[in-house]
Structure formats: structure tokens, C-alpha cells
Amino acid sequence: MQGQPQTLYPNDALQQLRDFIAAGNYAPGDRLPAERQLIDTLGVTRSALRKSLDTLEREGVIWRHVGKGTFITPHESASTVPGLAELSHHVTPFQMMRARLSLEPAIAREAAVNASADAVLRLKAARDRAFAATNWDTYEADDDAFHRSIADATGNILLLSLFDHLNQVRRVVAWRQVIRNTDRPAREHSSFKEHDLIIAAVEQRDPIAAHDAMRQHLNSVSKRLFGDG
After folding, report:
1. For residue 16, what is the DSSP state?
2. Residue 170 banded pLDDT, cuts 50, 70, 90
């Protein structure tokens, strides 16, 4: 008879999950054991496990597909993918934004066509975390997770991988134009309303509106960074 899962702090459970993945020598694209098996193996609660999985998903370590399972993200880090680290040193912030404007509206359109009810819930959860962020670093991480959740909602592993590679380069590019005059985003920060419009279009399965809402959002970001339209 198996004992009950021990009570662990979320950070303890997260570290156990990281250690489990590292010890298992999982390769990109490999599927992790089911939640029930992980709970038994790690001796953690369901709540602690799910919080840990949420964290790893936000970090881009794993991705989850409803009905299929949890997978190691099918890419390597920018420091190990041949050419990717070098590429990031030659991409300007403006070029990075133009690339986002080319790819992410199309991803939002596909999300509107293919997103499951659970995917929409994950989008809303990511939006809510960004809104609740208490500092800019947390907001940017949660905003990053929001955009990745849209790519995940397409159900298309290739689009998700393309987004991840684009995002890896974005993280390396130095955004020296960004000057923060406050500790956290204001409640009236335009991105919050723009995120709402994207989610509404995806939830209503309106691909044209989703495409336009994402493009409007990225144009707004571009205007704040560079003063362009």
C-alpha cells in the first residue's frame, strides 16, 4: 500500500520535478509520465505538481497538449542551437518587432480556429497573471507566457516551435530603448485591454478578429518602443 504524498512547499515540488526531468535524460519532444504517475513517483500533492508544471510551462521547458500529455519543449536553448545565438547578435530590436508582426498575428488566427475550451482557460489564466504582476520583471515573464499560450492554443507543434525560436532570439536582443518610470504596469496599461480583445476573438472563434487584435497589440508595443505606427 502506497503512502500518501508528503506535504511540500511549491518550490520543493518544483525542484523535485526539475531533478526528475534532468535525471530522466528526456530529449526535446519526449512525453513525461502522466500526472498520477508523477504524483506517486515524486510523492507530491496534485496541487503542488500542477503549480510546478505551470511554472515549467511558463519557462518554456515543457508544453501541454490536452488529451495527449506533457512534453519536453521541442527546441534547445539559444546557447546550444547552432546559429541561433549568433543570429541574436545580428538582429536589431526593430527587426525583432517586424518579425513578431509577421508571425504572431498568423498564430493568433490559427488559435481562433483550433483553440480548445481548456486552451482558452489557460489564455485567461496567463492574462490574469500578467494583470496581477507586482513589478515589471514579473509582468514581462507573464506577458511572455500569455503570448506563448496563444501559440500553444493553435494545437500545431510546428507553429509553437517557430514561436519559441523567435522568442529565444527576442530574449537575447537588448531592449535598451525601454525605460521604466514606474515599479509596475499601470492598471490602464494598454496591453491589458489588448490582451482582452485577443482572447475574446479566440474564444469567439473569429480568426480575422484575432489576427487584427494581435496586430493592433504588437503595433501598440512597437509604438511605445520606437514611436512608429
Report:
1. H
2. confident
